[in-house]
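Worked example 4.2. Below are the chains of a multi-component assembly; read each line carefully before continuing.
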Amino acid sequence: MSFISRGFKGRPRDKPRDARVPPGQYVVHDFPVLSAGPTPHPSLDAWTFSIEGEVDTAKRWTWAELRALPSETVTRDIHCVTKWSKLDTTWEGVSVDTLLDGVETAADYVMAFCDGGYTTNLPLEDLTGGKAWIAYAYDGKPLESQHGGPARLLVPHLYFWKSAKWVRGLRLMNEDTPGFWETYGYHMYGDPWLEQRYSGD
Amino acid sequence: MVGTALQRRLIWRTAEVVDLVDETPRVRSLVLAVPGWPGHQAGQHVDVRLTADDGYQTQRSYSIASPPSTDERLTLTIERLDDGEVSPYLAGELHAGDQVELRGPIGGYFVWAPAVGGPLLLVAGGSGLCPLMAMLRLRQAAGSTVPARLLYSSRSLDEVIYRDELNKLVAMENGLEVMLTLTRQQPPGWTGLHRRIDTDMLSAVAWPPAERPWTFICGPTPLVETAANALVNLGHEPARIKTERFGPTGG
Amino acid sequence: MAITEQELRLDGNAAAGLLRDVFVHEFTSVRGACATCGAEGEMGAQHLYMTPLSPGAVLRCATCGSMLMVVVRAGGRFRVGLQGLVWLEMQDEGAAS
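Applying the procedure described above to all three chains together yields the following structure tokens:
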């Protein structure tokens, strides 16, 4: 395609300036919002976070209980399959390791499930070992609902559709089963460094 | 109904800007010459695609403001959004002679033609007037006397798009009425409406539900939802109320 | 002589003409029924969740918000999910009117 729109620059974005930006991505400074449905506004009084499925004993926390767990503040780069990357984003939340502490399971996979019906699948080992959080604050402020508040899964080493907004729990599974976008052809794993955007990539 | 016409495959076409018209301080019309343009219906839109010199591409949809014609030309009327990615370029940087890529016409739902009949109730906010203007221009060009009312919400009189043309269309006294509501700033002596569109306003302006008007509503999502819900509550048939929302990602 | 079930079964190929007539319509004026709430209406009247950046688009029922249709355009192909629709209805252009 050779057509160039004379003088058109497009949204502010940087050329990849260092090894932190995966192939095919460009850096943005705003925080684009993408959604497959209406933004849910759950009451925090009734909100819970669950770990269920292939576990010996399911676990559940209320909002107050989740907030009372030890939290971590992490700064990570995030990479959206729509090709924007955002560097040095700062999040606060509970490590998934903390939530899985004491959970007995033989499962290898996880389905994150959310208000509004969204789901996404991940290998369990990608959520453990300090790689994933249930984040409830961004940039020092409560996570806005448009960005997934009250809480979202944060798995920054995978494309950002895996970091499910409005997350309400993790269902452990023995078999890898496609979540919402994965059903329609997004990659089952989604490694931005391997450009695993869609099935077949 | 305007039929579900069989579709040609949509192809990207190169259009040339042949004229620029400043409609208001923030709104500019682009007259485009599109070789091979197959013609369109009033209310349809086009996708415009822009390509930066590094290959980055983005596209947006814009309603066609000109009526159906056979001259391979169409007009897009674009509001410059300060934080927009595309509209400041289209309605600011483009000159006559520049080229843009577009494809269309697209859409068969939000369309009107004289054969559909009326009465016609058009409700718009801001640049949501564009596809409705194509309908009014078609109505005029076709010599239709289908009764038509336009309720148009604008922040101020200066920001009313196509103001002179609307005045001329009304002055022809062929069954078109235009009601303006100016939500932020009114000129001295303004005796017209001056609040956001609401149920009371629609109940005063709309045709009685028994007349079974065709209603087209276009504008920012809150305006569209307010107006559509109000009309349904007033007893209008939902299937005759057609809406076109501007999403949050316009611009 | 009775026709057996085996004799009634054709190849999908035989639907080529029928499906060609079906899948050429301007889609926003096609009517459909929501599998969740039963509401009927034109596709252009439903709610769409899509951004210019996104390969995926979700069409939701304007009455109940359930998914009607998902379209993902990526990797050189479209994948279309239709599980939220009971039926689609469009004009038969070939019918005598």
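Take a moment to check your reading of the output against the notes. The mean pLDDT of chain C is 88. DSSP finds two helices and seven strands in chain C.
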